[in-house]
Specification:
Structural class: mainly alpha
Number of helices: 8
Strand content: under 5%
Number of strands: 0
Distance between the termini: 30 Å
Order of helices and strands: HHHHHHHH
Helix content: over 70%
Largest sheet: none
């Protein structure tokens, strides 16, 4: 079986590439050209390894997103609690009716339990409704404007962090692709040189890490998808 570098995942390329470099230095210590080509493979593999070991897509900005989400959800819960208090112990009957009217539109709060994005659209619709002048009168009466403003601020922070996370993820995907393809070429050049200058048995031994990686992947001949 001839190795197909492009069929391997980036992680498999790094491992196999570095293993081939070690075999070159062990078996061909006096072959200057082969060692120079191995140096290029090692450099490209090390660059790709560093990118792959950086924070994953799931980790990028995730902790900050979760913290902001908690602040945002707590601000929403505070609004619900204040409205419930004015419904249970109202200043007058009109206050009770107003609190109940708004609660019927923005309660329950179970929509904020779940995936990070599951509640964003619902929340925006409710913020727009709350900022209608009819609702604003009641919100001022109950002292809720600071909580509404905090809710908006936290949602804006959430959106900004989410944009940064998407940008970072896309940048990482481009970086992986940018370094992965040069690693493909340097490995192919090294293997072609070894094939032309070494004995068949030596060539088979030196390319064995790629063959083993390809067999483990189980998809020889298929181009690996870019890691976006």
């Amino acid at each position: 079986m001839e190795p197909n570098v492009g069929s391997l995942s980036s992680q498999a390329k790094v491992i196999a590439g570095l293993q081939i470099v070690a075999l070159i230095r062990e078996n061909l210590p006096d072959n200057t050209a082969a060692n120079l080509l191995a140096d290029q493979v090692e450099e490209r593999a090390s660059e790709l390894k560093a990118i792959l070991e950086s924070p994953s897509e799931q980790d990028l900005y995730m902790k900050e997103l979760e913290d902001v989400q908690a602040n945002r959800d707590n601000a929403y819960r505070a609004i619900i609690m204040i409205l419930q208090a004015n419904k249970l112990c109202p200043e007058d009957e009109d206050a009770r009716m107003e609190a109940d009217r708004i609660l019927q539109q923005i309660h329950p709060i179970d929509f904020i339990v779940g995936a990070l994005l599951s509640d964003t659209t619902v929340l925006y619709h409710r913020l727009v409704w709350l900022q209608d002048e009819e609702q604003m009168k009641t919100l001022r009466r109950f002292g809720l404007l600071p909580f509404i403003h905090r809710l908006e601020e936290e949602q804006n922070r959430f959106d900004n962090l989410l944009d940064k996370r998407v940008t970072a993820r896309e940048s990482r995907g481009v970086s992986v692709l940018r370094v992965s393809r040069p690693l493909d070429r340097s490995l192919q050049t090294l293997l072609a040189f070894i094939r032309e200058t070494c004995e068949p048995a030596c060539y088979q031994h030196l390319q064995s890490p790629l063959i083993e990686a390809q067999q483990m992947a189980g998809t020889p001949g298929e181009e690996a998808a870019p890691l976006y």
